[in-house]
Structures are given as C-alpha cells and as structure tokens.
Amino acid sequence: MTKNIFRTKSINEFISETKQDGGMNKVLGTFGLTMLGIGCIVGTGIFVLTGVAAANYSGPALIISFIIAALACGCAALCYSEFAAMVPVAGSAYTYGYVALGEFWAWIIGWDLILEYAFAISAVAIGWSGYFNNILMNLGITLPKALTMAPYNGGLIDLPAIIIIAIVTLINIRGVQQSSFVNNIIVIIKLAVVALFIVLGASHVNAANWEPFMPYGWSGVFSGASIIFFAYIGFDAVSTAAEEVKNPQKDLPRGIILSLIICTVLYIAVSGILTGMVPYLDFKTTAAPVAFALQSVGYHWGAAAISVGAICGLTSVLLVMSFGQSRILFVMSRDGLLPKFFGHVHPKYKTPARSSLLICVITAITAGFLPINIVAELTNIGTLCAFIIVAAAVVVLRKKAPDRPRAFKCPWVPVIPALAIIFCAILIFMLPGVTQIRFVIWLILGLGIYFGYGYKHSIISRAKQGMLTPEAAAAGAETEAGTAETVHPTDAH
Fold first, then answer.
1. How far is 3 from 51, CA to CA, in rounded Å?
2. Which burial class, exposed, middle or buried, applies to 413 when counting CB atoms under 10 A from its CB (0-12, 13-18, 19+)?
3. pLDDT digits (tens, 9 = 90+) for 295-322
4. What does pTM read for this prediction?
5. Sequence-distant (≥ 6) Cβ neighbours of residue 139 within 8 angstroms
6. Hey, is 158 helix, strand or coil?
7. Is residue 445 classed exposed, middle or buried when 0-12, 13-18 and 19+ CB atoms within 10 A define those classes?
8. Alpha-carbon distance 490 to 4, whole Å?
9. With b meaning 16 or more CB within 10 Å and e meaning fewer, what string describes 469-485?
C-alpha cells in the first residue's frame, strides 16, 4: 500500500473523465474568469480584516503585510497558472497534485481545500450577517440577538448567515452562466464602492497617523500578513472552473493572474489610505473599518454606501467560494475518493447539484454556530498548505514530464516555486498555535477517511480489481493512447 498510495493519474485520463454525463457547459472566457477571481478575492479581507490586522498586528505597516501576502500568492498563482493551462479539469490543486505527486498527496490537498472553502464560506457568511444587521439597525430594525449571534457570542444561531448561504447555493445549482452573470453585477458594484473610498479618503490622509509605522515590529508585520492572507484567497477558485471555460489554455492563466494583480493594487491603496485616515488603534472597536474610517471624517453617506458595497462584496465571495467547493467535491467523488453520490451532474442544469447541497448544509451549520475568528484562521492554514504542495508539484512534473506541452510556463523554476513554499511556510508558522493543532486534527481525520474509504474505492483501485464498468474501461483504454510522456494510473511512483 505504501507504494500504491503515490500512484498518479494521466492528464489525458482526467480530461477524458470530464466528458462523463455529457460534461459541464463551457461558457466562461477571460473576462468572466477575472471577474470570478475579483468576486472571490475582494470581500472579507478588505472590508473586515484590514482593521483587525492594523489594530492588533501590523499598525500602519499593514501595507507591508499586504505586499508580503501578495508575494506569497503571486508565486503560488504562477504555479497554479501552469497547471491550470495544462490540466483544464475541475478540482484545482487537488487535480494538479494527482497528476504530479500521486493519489495520497492529491487527497491531502483535496482535504485541505475542503477545509479552506468550507470555513471560508462560513467566515464570509458571518461577516455578511454582521453588515446586514448593521444596515437594518440604521433603518430602525433590530433583530433579536438570539437569531443573529452564534452561541459562543451570546446568541442561539446566526440565522442571516444561514439564509444567505442557502440563497447562494440555489444560484449556483442553476448553472455557471447564471452564477457568473450575478457575480459580474456584484463585482462592478463593489469595485465602484472601493473606488469611492479611495477618492473620498485620499484627501483626508494625515501622515501623523502613520507614526509609529511599525509599532509591533517585523513579527507583527508577518503575523498581520498571515491574518490578512485570507484577503487573497480566491484566485485559486478561478482554476476550479476549468471544465466550464471555452479556451482554458489561454483564459485560465489570464484570469488567475489578472484578478490577483487588480486586487493587490486595490488592497495596497486601501490599506495605505485607511491607516492614514484614522489612528490604527481606533480600529480595535469596529468590525467595519472602511465604513468607520469614512464616518470618522464626516462622510456618513459614504459609510452607508460602503456598507452596501460590503454586502455586495461578501455576497460575490460566497457565490464563488460555494462554486469552487462544489467542483472540488465533484471531482474527488468522480475519482472514487469520496462517495459517487456527489459526483453526479444535474441533467438539466449541468452542475454538481448534490455537492452544492452538501456544502450548503455543512457551511450553514458552521456559520450558524461558530465564531468568525476560528473559521478564518482554519481557512488560512488549509490554503497555505495547498499552495505549498502545488508549488512542489510544478517542480516534480517538470522533471517527470519535461516535454509535456505547456500553454503557460511558470517562470524561473525552481526559484518561483521555492519562494512560494518559503513564504507560505513562514505564514503558517506565524499563525496561532491552537490553529496549527486544529489543522493537525483535521489532517488525521482526513487520513482516516482516505485509508478507510478513499484508497479502496479509488478509480485506480477499482481498475486494478476489474470493478469498472465497460464504459469506464473503454474510457481508460482511450487514455492509454495518450502521449509518451503521460503518466498512467497503473504506474506507482
């Protein structure tokens, strides 16, 4: 078994599997993918966590924290882009790990991504609920605390968070074209709101608020980077849409890189203006730092607009995160590592509806009953680990299949992947110890599921045992005619 758990699947086989049940609709281009990326990236990080990081970790040096997190994500994004163009299959880092490193590491990445997306959806839904309740209060409507707070915070259940997750799930089940259309509208609104903040706030920057610039030292800057890293999670969600892209070889790398560049520029501008408008310690008392900054200089109407933009921003993040999570569960199920029930494509909408419903139930429970700090930290550590494995996979596949056609090549390999690994490892180290312990427990649980179910039911195991249907066997035979450098599932590495 020790040898077999590192067995790989060929790229051709993955692509062949995308045609099962007629496949999914290919409707996305570079613009749609870039908007998906922005829709997922600009949200909780900029509207909520900027204040937390400035007040408790980075101070005015928040701008450096964003640059450090951007460097880590930039190196990882280049690695993602190479794989996305070469393996246009849903599943993102999970699929890339399966091709380059083998089934065991693919499972580890997939399990990490389940943690990342599930807790990210929950964290964003909790933030959405907070902004929603704030808007209602400004309108004179006060909902009972018991229905708007998790038990840990003195309530019974966060009902608005559960409701928005259910609504987003229904949109995603209807199809990627509908999801993309709704996302595009929301993204345009929130980009306009961010631009409004930059325009209004730039003239109220007081350089005295930037002193001391680094009150918590470099340790605080890196700790802040590990917290606001959450703000960049989302560009990897672009790669989960691979099976629904019209020209994945060109569109996927463009969508990943463009969305990350645009959001990085926005984050640096907003963080600089934010800490220049208000003394960083003042953010300790607010969960809506951007709106708070505008209120502090007299722009009450601007603060109201920011709150509406935040609602839109968080909604689009939920939409894309739920979309990405369902695709990861879908492809893991299709590979046999999870029950086949969740690998089903809806005959009418051509979406993994069952996976979407499972995610809805789990994330709604998490958002309804857990506080935001726990779910945000767990999201970060799961993502950082996935980035490390993808970076390593790029180097491995360059050596195992150097002649494999690559529509996009990560530059300066192995330097860029090595930098991604180093940056991400540092950020993991800077996360709270209790978060690291929870992550280890999650991994142990995942290993139990893999060895108890996934290994035995894997499509590779069933192929060896002669348990595949004639149709699946025929599909496998087709992949055997792939290129010479393709690695086949029967090879153990």
1. 48
2. middle
3. 889 888 888 888 888 888 888 888 888 8
4. 0.79
5. none
6. strand
7. exposed
8. 9
9. eeebeebbeebeebeee
